[in-house]
Amino acid sequence: MQLLEQNMQNFMQQKQQFQSQLIEVNSAIEELEKSEEAYKIIGNVMVLSKKEDLKKDLGSKKEMIELRIKTIEKQEAELKEKAKKLQGEVLSEMKE
Length: 96
Description:
Oligomer: single chain
Distance between the termini: 20 Å
Strand order of the largest sheet: 1-2
Number of strands: 2
Mean pLDDT: 93
Structural class: mainly alpha
CATH class: Mainly Alpha
CATH topology: Helix Hairpins
Helix content: over 70%
Strand content: 5-15%
């Protein structure tokens, strides 16, 4: 039971990290729409880049993050179901 709770906490932390990344990406997309020029950071250097290329990169990153969030949510749901089932088994054993 304790292991399930630890796994749930790990999933929640991962989900929060991906949600904050998603917020960053959405913010970057919004700012990109407003700006005339676009730059990309490569290592320690900021390089002028095509707006369309950056939009495509950010769109791909957004899709990947959303997919990871959905996967984590699915794993969370499965883990909750296992925990509920285990809790039911423990309670029924205690009653006997």
